[in-house]
Specification:
The complex is a heterodimer.
Chain A: H1 10-31, H2 43-47, E1 48-51, E2 56-59, H3 61-91, H4 96-110, H5 114-132, H6 135-144, H7 149-155, H8 161-189, H9 192-200, H10 205-220, H11 222-235, H12 247-258, H13 261-291
Antiparallel strand pairs in A: 1-2
Chain B: E1 6-17, E2 20-31, E3 35-39, H1 46-53, E4 61-66, E5 69-70, H2 75-84, E6 85-88, H3 100-110, H4 116-129, H5 145-158, E7 163-167, H6 175-189, E8 194-198, H7 202-208, E9 211-216, E10 219-224, H8 226-231, H9 236-246
Parallel strand pairs in B: 3-8, 3-9, 6-7, 7-8
Antiparallel strand pairs in B: 1-2, 1-4, 4-5, 9-10
Helix pairs in contact in B: 3-4, 3-5, 4-5, 5-6
Classes of the chains: A mainly alpha, B alpha/beta.
Chain lengths: 292, 248
């Protein structure tokens, strides 16, 4: 096996120099040929804005979007984990019908582009569901109330609650298929002897899953699972297409009104990067601690 | 129930793995308190037979009755039998994510619905019995093979079963650890526990067995008390087998 070098070779320097030149050329073309006027100084105002009337800092477009993205990612992750676990268990079921249903669900989601899936789920499921349960009216009722601080903390502007909740469900349904595959792999990696031992002391199927199989399986699949949650955050940008006002949606809005194409998208990219990279560092640390 | 009524009864039990017949018409009755040692060449169906007794394997033909309950499709019956029948595996099969104490108490707490405090004192009691009370807080991976197997025995005992099945309990152990496990099993035999032990440890068999069962190709070839079995086995096949394993 090769030892990974810690110091740069002259060839590495050359590669870096070529890359730097490349970046410079692009930069030059943007500023020269395109005659693009950078307005970075306007960006912070779209993150935090000083509200003259209230005399306090308030979140503007980008930060509002980021907060919504974080909220949706958290709820969708939880929902996807629950659904995915059920799906993973179903994939290992003895009953053929259950196994086939779970498999069908997975294959559909795996072989259809996410954008198409999101539209299908949104129009055929979420809209019907939201209308049927009259969630819209219910949320508007809460938005009108005086003491809705708790609701606002968890769900943001309650007038946007229906769109946010459908976005969350759509995202969770989509990701749950992949979480399900990961959970299935975890369950199948547990040696048969563990089940036999659980059964031989008279455990029910449910107890066997809850106390013996799943705790071990989940620990084993923590790395791919955390990857999937990071994917979920990135995939959450897709639900901007169904008008969920998360980070990507807000950036589109900002670009449309200010024409700061590069600044806005680079800022948004940085937000996503910090969120995902931070999370992956956190997971890596958790794994290391879990192993120690 | 009279003392002579069998606690385990296998009648004409057959079992197939695909086209392969693992058990071919097994008849065996075991009375309460009896210690039966099952031996025979590998692939003869010893493990399959005892795994049928707590239905880790399903038999295809014949009937198995344990403590008055006939084993069939009924999951309640199966669980009732499993609570009365403990099993010790070749690979220990301890739960690696639980401490030794938790391994022991999870059965009583979840299956017998025992209070945690009571289950723990029960568990400590049985850890004492298998001579490792000081390991209660450790995880299985921190123990030696012999210790792990003794924990596994204690785990079975915590369910306070009437019957214990041993599936080659010392086969996965390093030689120097075999005796610590066998000692525990000998002590257990002294308590009047009904035991069916699949093993190649003939010294142990001589010491504790009431009956020896010799199997080959899915059939019980010979059943005899150890005094007869080891000195003057009836069948040629058992004689050959004994020659092979007692040679050295």
């Amino acid at each position: 096996m090769h030892k990974t070098r810690k110091r740069l070779h002259w060839l590495d320097w050359l590669i870096l120099a070529v890359l730097a030149g490349f970046v410079f050329v692009i930069w030059y073309r943007i500023s020269g040929t395109l005659n693009y006027k950078w307005q970075w100084e306007r960006i912070p105002n779209y993150i935090l804005r000083w509200d003259e009337e209230d005399g306090r800092w308030v979140a503007n477009l980008l930060l509002q979007g980021l907060i919504t993205t974080i909220r949706i990612s958290i709820y969708a992750s939880i929902l996807a984990l629950i659904l995915g676990t059920i799906l993973g268990i179903a994939r290992c079921a003895e009953n053929l019908a259950i196994r086939m249903l779970a498999r069908t669900y997975l294959e559909f989601l795996r072989n259809i582009p996410p954008v198409v899936v999101v539209f299908i789920f949104f129009f055929f499921l979420s809209e019907q569901f939201i209308t049927a349960l009259n969630i819209e009216g219910w949320a508007r009722g809460i938005a009108r109330q005086e003491n809705n601080g708790v609701w606002e903390f968890f769900f943001g502007d309650m007038r946007l609650f229906p769109s946010m909740i459908s976005g969350t469900i759509v995202l969770a349904l989509f990701e749950s298929a992949f979480v399900g595959e990961i959970v299935r792999a975890g369950i199948q990696s547990i040696p048969r002897g563990q089940r036999e031992a659980a059964r031989s002391i008279g455990m029910t199927w449910l107890d066997e899953m809850r106390f013996i199989i799943l705790p071990q399986a989940m620990r084993k699949v923590l790395p791919p699972l955390s990857n999937q949650f990071i994917s979920l955050i990135k995939d959450s940008s897709i639900i901007s297409l169904i008008s969920v006002q998360e980070l990507t949606y807000k950036t589109v809005e900002l670009v449309a009104s200010t024409r700061m194409i590069f600044e806005a998208w680079l800022t948004t990219a940085a937000f996503y990067f910090i969120l995902c990279f931070g999370l992956s560092l956190l997971f890596r640390r958790l794994e290391r601690e879990g192993r120690a | 129930m009279s003392d002579d009524a069998p606690i385990i009864e296998l009648r004409n039990v057959s079992k197939f793995f695909g086209p392969f017949q693992a058990l071919a018409g097994i008849n065996l009755s075991v009375v309460a308190g009896e210690r039966v040692v099952v031996c025979g060449p590998s692939g003869s169906g010893k493990s399959t037979m005892i795994r049928c007794i707590n239905r880790l394997e399903e038999h295809d033909q014949g009937s198995i009755t344990v403590d008055g309950i006939s084993l069939g499709e009924d999951t309640k019956d199966i669980r009732a039998v499993r609570q009365e029948v403990g099993m010790v595996f070749q690979q220990f099969n301890l739960f690696p994510h639980l401490t030794v104490l938790e391994n022991l108490t999870i059965g009583p707490i979840r299956v017998r619905k025992m209070e945690k405090a009571r289950a723990e004192s029960l568990a400590r009691n049985y850890l004492e019995r298998v001579h490792i009370p000081e390991q209660a807080g450790k995880y299985p991976a921190q123990l030696s093979g012999g210790q792990q197997q003794r924990v596994a025995i204690a785990r079975s005992l915590c369910m306070e079963p009437r019957i214990l099945l041993f599936d080659e309990p010392t086969s996965a152990l390093d030689p120097e650890m075999i005796n610590e496990v066998l000692d525990v099993m000998v002590e257990l035999a002294g308590t009047g526990m009904t035991m069916i032990v699949v093993t190649h440890e003939m010294g142990f068999a001589r010491k504790v067995a009431d009956r020896m069962v010799f199997m080959e190709a899915g059939r019980i070839v010979e059943v005899a008390p150890p005094s007869v079995f080891f000195t003057n086995p009836e069948s040629d096949r058992a004689r050959m087998f004994l020659d092979q394993i007692l040679e050295h």
